[in-house]
Design brief:
With 194 residues, this protein is α+β, with helices and mostly antiparallel strands. The protein is globular, with a radius of gyration of 33 Å. Strand 4, helix 4 and strand 5 form a beta-alpha-beta unit. 26% of the residues lie in helices and 23% in strands. It has four helices and eight strands; from the N terminus they run αββααββαββββ.
């Protein structure tokens, strides 16, 4: 029995010795043909910056104004899924310098921000900061038409838009000049479409 035990211990010791990591007194060169995984091929450094995955970006349409103050669709790219808030934020960023040079404008000042956009059935309630309430004259109707067209194209042409300023419901003008408490629809602005 003890000879069997000694034989088992000897086999285990030999196996353990064969699996050990060899030790050396210092570093030494490894032949190129023994270097694994193409480690000798020079590789450019990799970066770890995070860029949006192109497949997670989607095109959307937003509406600016032509030089004759008609609605004009312009394409933008936003993160998918494209919630109405993101689409409206793209609208509020305004036309690019190239678009401006081509005569594209907006009636929405650059200090306007969207606080929220909540869909309930076929109506989207858009809540803007106080700067939206500072828009005056015909610019108000044009700004409202830009928002309504952008929301309707995103959510369906029958979508109504209710406006809030700092969480308080507000009436807005339609193309006839009448003030409407909301919701308002794209059909009420077709005279300004292009």
């Amino acid at each position: 029995m003890t000879s069997r035990r000694l034989l088992s211990v000897a086999v285990v010791a030999l196996l353990a010795a064969g699996c050990g990591i060899p030790t050396q007194s210092g570093p030494h060169a490894i032949a190129a043909n023994h270097v694994p995984f193409d480690l000798l091929k020079p590789q450019p450094p990799t970066t770890t910056t995070t860029q949006p995955n192109p497949s997670s970006l989607v095109p959307v349409q937003i509406f600016f104004l032509t030089s004759s103050q008609k609605l004009q669709a312009v394409e933008r790219v936003v993160m998918s899924p494209a919630p109405v808030t993101s689409v409206l934020t793209a609208l509020l960023a305004g036309p690019t310098s190239a678009e401006t040079a081509g005569g594209t404008t907006t009636a929405i000042p650059n200090d306007v921000t969207v606080l929220s956009a909540v869909a309930q059935g076929s109506v989207v309630t858009v809540n803007f900061n106080a700067a939206f309430g500072q828009i005056t004259g015909t610019s108000t109707e044009l700004a409202v038409s830009q928002v309504v067209a952008t929301v309707a194209v995103q959510n369906g042409l029958g979508t109504g838009v209710s406006f809030e300023i700092e969480g308080q419901p507000t009436s807005v003008p339609i193309s006839s000049g009448a003030q409407v408490p909301g919701p308002v629809y794209l059909l009420q602005f077709l005279g300004t479409a292009h």
